[in-house]
Structure prediction request, 549 residues.
Amino acid sequence: MITDDYEEFSETQIKKLKRYVTNTSSHVFVLKNLPEVIKGALFSRYSRSSLGLRSLLLKEFVDNEQDIAFQSIVGGEGDEESTNQQTEAIQKAQSFYDRILDGYGDDSIGELGGAHIAIENISMIVAKQIEDLRIGGSPLEKSTRYIYFDQKVQGDYLFYKEPVLMTSAHRHLYVDTCRMLFETYSRLIPPVMQMVEERVPKDPASSKTAYAAACRAKVLDMLRGLLPAGTLTNMGLYGNGRFFEHLLHKLQSHTLAEAQEIGRRALEELSCVIPSFVRRARPEHKTHVAFSHFYEGMQEELVLIAKKRRKNLIMHSEEEPSVKLLSWDEKAVEKVAAALIYPYTQESLEELQKTVSALSEEEIAEILDAGCIMREGRRHRSPRALEHASFTFELLSDFGSYRDLHRHRMLTQERQLLTCSHGFFVPNELKKTAFETEYVHALKEAKKAYDQIAQELPEEAQYVVPMAFRIRWYFVVNLRSLQWLTELRSSAAGHPSYRHTAQEMAKAVIAQFPAFERFFKFVDYDGHELGRLGQEQKKVNKQSHPATL
Prediction:
């Protein structure tokens, strides 16, 4: 056992350290009050030093004023003058950090420092481009079910004025169509709210606050399909340096002007906080130049090849399956069973797979049951053995549903351009009501505008496509990730559209592998009128009766 006295510090050193570590004696402690770039440099140096982290912090950082002006970097009282001094000190010491980062590690060193960045007034289209990067970043985006998108700023609705569109012959068509969609969305909110309240009256046992929140979520879920993909949203994003470098490469090399602008601005702001981690993403840096050459060249070649083989798109009916299971491993059950018992034996995985393949269905079932019988809820994560079963799905669903399912990062996914070619989704609650005609009319008008713009500007035309229109994408997902996705997204609180997708994915796997049904026992197949009511009531109860320690 490691004792807590393996390092000794003087009183002066302890006083210095207390500002930067949570504990000066325990062998477990957390860094604090340090810029991200120093944390990254410190940890990268740490991997090549025999010193403890606190000793290293003192020797090469805190007391190394000559090389890095440490006190100027971490000091200051937060006023404008001290902030400017801090920024200048970081820039002055940049070569020192770069030497450490370049000399004591590889690209993984970029994961040792991170930053929080806010990206406001970004379109839903480019928000997806940012969220495409799955590893190393954690995005949160403004919700369409809790926030009304009917506000106007300076007399207009909040949608992106795409510069190429705004200087083209389609300017007025684009702007007028977006405004029409927002006006329809805004106009329908009050009467649809009244309809929901009449259909599902408040239960006296439910709180007024919870009921109102559930009704609002229901109405906004029903009407979000009218919002164009150019709708402006806000994002909060945390990522490590490696994540941000790759993100900046992609954004600055993107074909959409908005993505390029966000990339430039993000680089400028991140350079104030984690400059060493994003310096290779600068346009003039050889790394970015090489990446841009590769990325843009690859896209150009693939676009040309795709055009040669492109067939005429056809409108798909609403009856077409939204979920297709395209491929799987026939030996998935045996592989999962073998992997479940692997940690508890000394046999090779190959030997175990052969052994399991010779077992009876009952014997395999006993192994599979052991891997899930103790699960009491979806938050009980299954063993990694389930990752030995992999599936490829092709999905066709409304863009709103895609936005939610796209957030699952532990899988491989890719989408096609957003178009109006695959039909659109009409919420069941609006069908055969007085509001369906107006809802459908707005979508059809948007399609006319899209069809006209897309002939010349197919990528920019995405901005006018309402969220109700369907998009194609695929998932390559293992059983463990699929279990989490389907049990989470089928829950009562979820949007009806993606609840259906999650349910169908679970059904498709169970139909192919009945033995895997046991792993989907918390998938919710029921329908729910006010799906958010339970969650909202729990929230009210917690606020009324906070837990005591």
